[in-house]
């Protein structure tokens, strides 16, 4: 909790828990700061494990609880098999619980999980846990997101109450106007997994929602950019290299973005400044996209205000052949 709040009723309940409810709760009697109790509440998602295999995609930093559908089963320990080397790891379970909590998930948690129990009448199925780099929400308003090639992301619809939805379809079109609209298959109606992305995953994504009263509506459009590299430019000089044919995002990285119009200037041939490119704003960040990089894109870039004053350090961009990068590794 960033901001403390007073709860005057000593007995309270929070319905429909969300991540915004996570935090530290303190209950004190009167003005006595010494007498009181504290409760740390963390929100995690229950993943129900039955006797059949299942798959769950978690995003980095997420908390989840693996919960056996048979809660009375005594679990001796949990077995995890790593995705990469197939090595088995024993996870102790001294309290013999039928659940396992995974905190602040990262790539090391990827793998297959199974509960080792002594019951002969019921055996746990295997949960395959896969990891995405980030969770991106799709709501009522248009939005944009930039990610890198080979990343995986989870798109989640949050545009209305899920209980009011009768049918939800994910749709996609290319970034160019007037392109064909495709309907996408999803393992979950409200979530769409984009795994190990390529430039082909770039485009506009939205949801077509049919409510229980048979009224239809569309969510906001998420414009997804997929690039080979994201380069942050602050107040200090910086440098980077890109391979011919790559696409990159040069992003103005500063806590305060000036309100006046911002544009990028390029020093052609590392010499005089000549405005050559426009800047687009992506999630309140001034950004420059360079697609299909060539030798002509080599040079020095900086962000400037409408008055021509530099507001960032200079970024020196070098463009190399693909085999040059390989030889330098």
UniProtKB/TrEMBL annotation:
Q: Which residues form the Ig-like domain?
A: 168-223
Under PROSITE patterns, the record lists: IG_LIKE
The superkingdom of the source organism is Eukaryota
- Which InterPro entries has this protein been placed in? Ig-like_dom (IPR007110), Ig-like_dom_sf (IPR036179), Ig-like_fold (IPR013783)
Signal sequence range: none
Name of the featured protein: Ig-like domain-containing protein
Recorded source organism is Mytilus galloprovincialis
């Amino acid at each position: 909790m960033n901001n403390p709040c007073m709860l005057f009723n000593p007995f309270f309940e929070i319905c429909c828990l969300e991540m915004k409810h996570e935090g530290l709760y303190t209950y004190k009697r009167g003005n006595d700061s010494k007498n009181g109790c504290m409760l740390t509440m963390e929100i995690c998602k229950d993943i129900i494990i039955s006797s059949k295999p299942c798959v769950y995609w978690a995003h980095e930093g997420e908390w989840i609880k693996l919960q056996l559908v048979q809660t009375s089963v005594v679990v001796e320990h949990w077995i995890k098999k790593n995705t990469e080397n197939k090595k088995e790891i024993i996870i102790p379970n001294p309290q013999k619980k039928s659940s396992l909590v995974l905190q602040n998930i990262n790539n090391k948690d990827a793998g297959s999980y199974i509960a080792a129990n002594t019951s002969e009448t019921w055996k746990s199925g295997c949960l395959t846990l896969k990891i995405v780099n980030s969770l991106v929400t799709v709501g009522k308003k248009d939005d944009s997101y930039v990610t890198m090639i080979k990343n995986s992301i989870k798109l989640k619809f949050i545009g209305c109450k899920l209980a009011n939805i009768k049918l939800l379809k994910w749709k996609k079109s290319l970034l160019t106007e007037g392109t064909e609209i495709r309907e996408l298959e999803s393992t979950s109606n409200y979530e769409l997994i984009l795994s190990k992305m390529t430039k082909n995953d770039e485009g506009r994504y939205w949801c077509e929602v049919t409510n229980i009263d048979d009224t239809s509506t569309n969510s906001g459009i998420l414009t997804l950019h997929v690039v080979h590299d994201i380069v942050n430019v602050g107040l200090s000089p910086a440098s980077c290299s890109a391979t011919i044919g790559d696409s990159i995002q040069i992003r103005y990285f500063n806590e305060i973005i000036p309100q006046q119009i911002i544009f990028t200037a390029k020093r052609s041939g590392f010499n005089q400044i000549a405005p050559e490119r426009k800047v687009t704003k992506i999630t309140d960040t001034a950004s420059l996209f360079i697609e299909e990089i060539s030798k002509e894109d080599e040079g020095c870039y900086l962000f400037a205000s409408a008055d021509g004053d530099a507001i960032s350090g200079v970024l020196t961009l070098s463009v190399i052949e693909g085999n040059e990068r390989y030889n330098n590794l």
